[in-house]
Amino acid sequence: MTVPETIPQPLTGAAQDTAPAAPGPATEALRPHAEHAFAHELTALAAADDRPRPARWRLSPWAVATYLLGGTLPDGTVITPKYVGPRRIVEVAVTTLATDRALLLLGVPGTAKTWVSEHLAAAVSGDSTLLVQGTAGTPEEAIRYGWNYARLLAEGPSRAALVAGPVMRAMAQGMTARVEELTRIPADVQDTLITILSEKTLPVPELGEEVQAVPGFNLIATANDRDRGVNELSSALRRRFNTVVLPLPATADAEVDIVTRRVAQLGRSLKLPAVPEGVEEIRRVVTVFRELRDGVTTDGRTRLKSPSGTLSTAEAISVVTGGLALAAHFGDGVLRPGDVAAGILGAVVRDPAADQVIWQEYLETVVRERDGWKDFYRACREVSA
Known about the structure:
The chain is globular, with a radius of gyration of 24 Å. Strands 4-7-10-3-11 form a five-stranded parallel β-sheet. Helix 13 crosses helix 14 and helix 14 packs antiparallel against helix 15. It has helices spanning 13-18, 34-37, 39-48, 61-69, 87-97, 113-125, 140-143, 149-155, 166-173, 187-190, 193-199, 235-238, 252-270, 279-294, 313-330, 337-348, 354-367, 374-384; strands at residues 71-72, 78-79, 102-106, 131-133, 145-147, 162-164, 176-180, 201-204, 209-212, 218-223, 241-245. Strand 8 (201-204) and strand 9 (209-212) form a beta hairpin. The chain is of the alpha/beta class and 385 residues long. The protein starts with 12 loop residues before the first helix and ends with a helix. It has two domains: 4-245, 3-Layer(aba) Sandwich (Rossmann fold); 252-384.
């Protein structure tokens, strides 16, 4: 027996009037959801998309891949790239969602797992908000369902007292659910997903019923195995996923492109200076991060010690965005070495003892001797003193 009635319905009447408005295309939000921020691209793709679509998908797999990778439509609409990387990775991920297999995006921190997950859900279901954020304290109820305890105490277990979680709603509506940082969730809570992914049902033993997934339902999870506090996935759960590994950007140019695009998007929402004014500093930040991450200079001549931090693309984006804010509010609006130096120091030196030594050695043996980097060296020395 299924219980689609357990899915909460929109508020009506006076209750609806007092509910806070959900952010939408017309609502100013600090970080709009993907389906709102790129609504014009999704609409243009839907209009141009004449290929077969899986049940309840807003776009065909081809159009979903185009939305993530970018392109130009016959009507001249430019689809901006959301992911810069191998096309086959995106095609495998999209194809997985078109089957009954769940998708696990795996990679080190900063490889755009969450970004790709959000945009996949937005393109497939038109809604990226059916989200479970994994933490060490995520309870089983966050993945399954909860209860309205006032009604539960007054009436006992009933459909009206049941509060559906994001995964349950996605199952009943044939949409895509997301679980971020799956390996952060305690192992016994992770395994709650096994029945959902294998049987496509979510039992509700308190009511003697179950929710059965309708066509269109699937789940995207993200995970990494580099951070501290990671809980390994059980072999039973891992078998329920198709795993796609997202690599770090292959080249410095690709990473500079990613950082530039993302910082430009963030800068527009924060009213920061245009990114082209600071492209040279972006390249320096990316170069420093890549060399320390890889343990060797770009020319391959000098071996380096790597600090304890991941120095990911996401951290480079954060450093540059912070630098732009400094340039806008306390400078002349142009990104300069002094604006990014403190951010780089904070990203590199996570362990004050070991990482500080590594950073000082890098400054003196590499940055100091590099042509055209004298101003960058002086700025870094000033904040490192």
